Amino acid sequence: MNLKLEQSTINNQQSKIQISGSKSESNRILLLQAFYPKIEIENLSNSDDSQVMSEALTTSSHIIDVHHAGTAMRFLTAYFSIQNGREVVLTGSDRMKERPIKILVDALRTLGADIRYMESEGFPPLKINGKSLTQNKVTLKANVSSQYISALLLIAPKLENGLELTLEGKITSVPYIHMTLSLLKEVGIETSFIENIIKVSPKSSISNQKLIIESDWSSSSYFYSILALSEVGTKITLSSYKEHSLQGDSVLAKIYQQFGVTTTFFNNRIKIQKRANINQKTFIEIDLSNAPDIAQTIAVTCFALGLECYLKGLHTLKIKETNRLLALKIEIEKLGGEVSITEDSLSLKASKVIKSQVAIDTYNDHRMAMAFAPLALRTSLIINAAEVVSKSYPGFWTDLKNIGFQISE
């Protein structure tokens, strides 16, 4: 499904939006619920990824296909490795078979797991023979994807002797590690994170728990971008958010102050408002090593505002649904921008022109579709394979229409 977005303006009278629960929190809590059935979940994400995770944890099938869900692939690799006596084949889309998982598999093998590669060494699909793991010490490079680290931490309380995880070097994506540890603590599991050593104690069972999942901050990023491109005075209210969030992407509230957008917290909601226009000579430089998922949104915001920017800390973007750095470069340059990329950074030159009627390719990546959508406030464009947003935000296009975007097939 390709969607045409005409140049639009925001309707301030219809700008209240309910965003589904965080995909990151949902997938962690779903795995914990599989271990501890007394956990009750409220405001679960309605994303494809969380649906895939939920189905995989409840199926009795021998073959489990996670499609494009990278988080599910990492978490389920760890989960099935400790399901004693159960054998599964864990597979995914063609792109998933290109996404490395060797670091996690090696760590699990160190703990005693029985995992084999079925096609290419270091990549899915995997054949996993579940067993009880008694080893409890493992070391990882600290700059690896936080999902590898979280996968190990989530199964740790079900290991006979818990887990002692040592991280070597500078740690990246720290907020996601803290999110995992906070959720473990919330259900009564003892953890510690001192210097570069994380310890998780074993726990066989827990008492009844209700966990309320905060709405997804990554999904809110597109509305921050929309506000940045809107007239001064435009505002949108989003639910349900906490001022003291577990999600690393909550740094959006601070980052978008640079674009003249303020955030007010009230009654588990946020009101975001365009307060001022930004000076065209402003140079934006941001280290996103703790929040790489919002890089696409910020890059497109800067391009649309004609700002020069330098975004760094993006080394994990190459192994996402697509190589996001390369995809950003290709699509922004279609629109008339000038982008250069390295292994972990993106530089954008200030641009005075935005081409119209450009078709944006989305590369099976939900964030490509949603990050470029706010450009409809400046020009008309086409989003190819727009249905890809269902991976994290199925109602995205409906919500945009409700606030004034003119969208047609």
Automatic annotation (TrEMBL):
Its EC number is 2.5.1.19. It comes from the Bacteria. Phosphoenolpyruvate binds at K23, G70, R99, Q147, R324, R367, K391. Residues 61-400 form the Enolpyruvate transferase domain. One of its GO terms (biological process) is chorismate biosynthetic process. GO terms for molecular function: 3-phosphoshikimate 1-carboxyvinyltransferase activity. It catalyses: 3-phosphoshikimate + phosphoenolpyruvate = 5-O-(1-carboxyvinyl)-3-phosphoshikimate + phosphate. It is found in: Cytoplasm. Keywords: Amino-acid biosynthesis, Aromatic amino acid biosynthesis, Cytoplasm, Transferase. This is 3-phosphoshikimate 1-carboxyvinyltransferase. The keyword Transferase applies. Belongs to the EPSP synthase family. It comes from Formosa maritima. Monomer. The active site is at D293 (proton acceptor). InterPro entries: Enolpyruvate_Tfrase_dom (IPR001986), Enolpyruvate_Tfrase_sf (IPR036968), EPSP_synthase (IPR006264), EPSP_synthase_CS (IPR023193), RNA3'P_cycl/enolpyr_Trfase_a/b (IPR013792). Transmembrane segments: none annotated. PANTHER family: AROM/DEHYDROQUINATE SYNTHASE (PTHR21090), PENTAFUNCTIONAL AROM POLYPEPTIDE (PTHR21090:SF5). Pfam families: EPSP_synthase.
